[in-house]
Amino acid sequence: MGMNNINKMMKQMQKMQAQIAKLQDELGEKTVEAAAGGGAVVVVANGRQEIVSIKIDPVAVDPEDVEMLQDLILAAVNEALRQSQEMVAREMGKITGNMRLPGF
Question: What keywords were assigned to this record (predicted)?
């Protein structure tokens, strides 16, 4: 491998690194939404795998069955995080050509 090839590869890696940094900023603004219990609990997560909102329909709040509400919240949060991870992988794949990079 010649010096020109190494320099070219380094420039490509620097360009990819800049694109990834920009994408990470953009992913903080993109969101996914997941619901459980027919929409009784709705959770929104961003591309940083942060939960940005949780909405609970008052009908789902039954003091006699708190466990059901907890299960609905847990299911919606897990689904939102799963969808967020898929969104990140999809967007990252556009930059990396679906090459697996450590830490992403």
Answer: Coiled coil, Cytoplasm, DNA-binding
pLDDT tens, per residue, the chain with 104 residues: 577 888 888 888 888 888 888 888 888 899 999 999 999 999 999 999 999 999 999 999 999 999 999 999 999 999 999 999 999 999 888 887 766 655 55
Which residue matches tokens 């190494």? 6
C-alpha dist (Å) from residue 12 to 1, 24, 37, 41, 90 = 16, 18, 47, 44, 20
Verdict on whether the full-model pTM lies above 0.85: no
Q: Which CATH number fits domain 26-98: 3.90.180.10, 3.90.850.10, 3.30.1310.10, 3.40.50.1820?
A: 3.30.1310.10
For 10, the token pair is 């380094």
Q: Taking the CA atoms of the chain, what radius of gyration do you get in angstroms? A: 20
